[in-house]
Each structure stands twice: as C-alpha cells, then as structure tokens.
C-alpha cells in the first residue's frame, strides 16, 4: 500500500516545507503511519507528488472519489504554502498554494481541499481550485 521515498536521504529536508527532515515529517506517513491532522495529510500528499509516490496518493484518497489509476506526469514542484486549515470533528478543509515549473515556465496551483476522517485515518476527498 504505502510506498517508500527511496530517493530521499534520511537527513533531507521534507518537500512539504515544514523545515523538518523527511524522516521525521512526511516519511512515516509515506510508510503507513496515520496523519494526525488533515493538514499533515495534505502536506504528505504534496510530498508524495514531489517524490512520485502514486500508491500513497491512491491509498490516502477517499474511496468515494478515488481514481482507479493515477499517472504522475507532473510538473517540477517548487514549494508549498498552507494558507488555512479548519477542522470540525471528522471533516476538514485545507487551503494551499503549490508552486511549480513546467517547460521552464513557473506556475501556481491554489486549492481548497476537503478531507474526511474515517476509522481514525484522514482521507483526501476532493478540492476546488481557488486561484490562477
């Protein structure tokens, strides 16, 4: 189910931008540990896109909205900024901006994502693009 980030050094900074090393930030989640919050799950999913961990992304997507497969022909991700995290019981929203580069051109994805917690685990439900 969860995939390992084999290309990350244990002392490498986590791609999610917390300033922690990957091994003590998103690394444990990528190896199967549950996320404590929807924000932690969102950060780990961003890191999974950076690290091309399609199995992890599928495993953390809610079954009601999960795609059957996921192709990761993604841009080169440059950074993440969490703008807002709101939780109420077993539902949460996280608004973020992810910067990327494709073909030498910079871009940004701004999304407000919805999450749900079931059986003690957070899952990505869906998201709405809110910016350019």
Summarize the structure.
With 132 residues, the protein is an alpha+beta fold. Strands 1-2-3-4 form a 4-stranded antiparallel beta sheet, with helices on one face. It has helices at residues 27-30, 38-51, 54-59, and strands at residues 76-88, 91-102, 105-118, 121-129.
Low-confidence stretches: 1-6
The largest sheet, given as strand count, sense and whether it forms a barrel, is: 4 strands, antiparallel
Number of strands: 4
* Radius of gyration, CA atoms, in whole angstroms: 14 Å
Order of helices and strands: HHHEEEE
Strand content: 35-45%
CATH class category label:
Alpha Beta
Distance between the terminal alpha carbons, to the nearest Å? 33 Å
Q: Give the structural class.
A: alpha+beta
Task: Summarize the SSE layout with pairings.
Elements: H1 27-30, H2 38-51, H3 54-59, E1 76-88, E2 91-102, E3 105-118, E4 121-129
Antiparallel strand pairs: 1-2, 2-3, 3-4
């Amino acid at each position: 189910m969860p995939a390992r980030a084999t290309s990350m050094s244990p002392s490498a900074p986590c791609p999610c931008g917390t300033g922690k090393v990957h091994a003590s930030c998103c690394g444990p989640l990528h190896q199967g540990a549950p996320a404590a919050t929807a924000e932690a799950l969102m950060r780990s999913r961003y890191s999974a896109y950076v690290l091309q961990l399609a199995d992890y992304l599928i495993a953390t997507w809610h079954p009601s909205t999960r795609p059957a497969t996921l192709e990761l022909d993604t841009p080169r991700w440059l950074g993440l900024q969490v703008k807002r995290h709101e939780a109420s019981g077993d539902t949460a929203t996280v608004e973020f901006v992810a910067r990327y580069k494709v073909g030498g051109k910079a871009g940004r994805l701004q999304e407000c994502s919805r999450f749900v917690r079931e059986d003690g685990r957070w899952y990505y439900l869906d998201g709405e693009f809110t910016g350019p």
